[in-house]
Amino acid sequence: MDPELEAFIPLFPRADLTDPVVERKSFAELARAIPVPDFAGMEIEDRTVPGDPDVAVRIYRPYQAQGAVVWLHGGGFVMGDLDTEHPWAIRLADVSGAVVVSVGYRLAPENPFPAALDDTYTVLTWLAGHAAELGVDPERIAVGGHSAGAGLAAGVSLRARDEQGPRIRFQLLNQPGLDDRQETWSQRTFTDTPWMNRDKVTAGWRHYLGPVPAREPVSPYAAPARAADLSGLPPAYVAAAELCPNRDEDITYALRLLQAGVPVELHQWAGTFHGSQAILSAEVSQRQLAELGAVLRRALAG
C-alpha cells in the first residue's frame, strides 16, 4: 500500500452498512472534515429538476465552461448527498472546466432500484433539454461518478443507448460498482481492505436490489456488468484501485468495452484502496483527482 495512504488507515471508522441511517451520519461527518476550496468566479446553484418525483441538483458553473457532466456521488447506494459530494464536485468543476450537475438521487434501502437510476435519467434528460440555458453545448454532455455513483453512470449510459435517449459524449467511471454477483478474485479475496470490503459491498447491493425474491433477473441497468452487449456506448475512462473489491470487475468491464469497439482509457492505481483519493495530502490522491479533471476536460473539448 502507498505509505502516505497507509498512515491514515487507523483513522478510518469501521462501517458495515447494516444500519444505513447511522452510517449516513458517519459519512456526513467525514465529508465535513474535507476542506472546501473557494474558487472565485464559479457560480454554484441549487435547483430542483422536475420529475416523478422531482430531483435536487447542485450546479457548478466555471467561467467559460467547455461542457457538462451529470455527476453522481458514491456511498454504496445508501449514503451520500449533495453536501457530502460538495468538496469533490467543486474540485472537478475547477480542474475540468465543465459544468458539474451533482445529483441528489434517492437512496436505498428506502428507495431501491430503479429509484436512483430513474433520478439520474431524469436529470440527464433535463440537462440535454436545458443545455443552452446553462451555456452548454448539448453535444458535450458526459456522465460520471465515484463508486456506486460510477455504477449508476454506467447504467444510465446503457439505458440512454437502449431507449435512444440523450446523447452521452463520455463516461467518467471512478472505481465503479458494476457487478452484484461478486464472483471476481478481488471480490472474493478482499474481505478486510480499508473502507470497502466484501461484506460491505454485499450489504450495499442487498439494500439497492431489495429482497432476494425480487432480484432475479437483475437488470443490467442496476449491475452493468450483466449487460450482454456493450457496443454503441460512449467512450469511457475507468479507474480502479488496487486494494478494492471492485477492482477486477472494473478492469473486466473496461476490457469488454474495448472488445465491443468502445474507446477506453483504463488506469489501475497501484497502492490505493477504495475511496483513498479522499486523503488529499497523499501525492497519489492529488494525481488521481487531477487526472479525473484532465480526462473530462479533454473529453468535452473541441
UniProtKB/TrEMBL annotation:
Keyword Hydrolase among UniProt keywords: yes
Signal peptide residues on this chain, from the entry's feature table: none
Highest taxon, organism lineage: Bacteria
Name the UniProt record assigns to this protein: Alpha/beta hydrolase
Keywords: Hydrolase
One of the record's GO molecular function terms: hydrolase activity
Xref: SUPFAM superfamilies: alpha/beta-Hydrolases
Domain Alpha/beta hydrolase fold-3 residue range list: 69-276
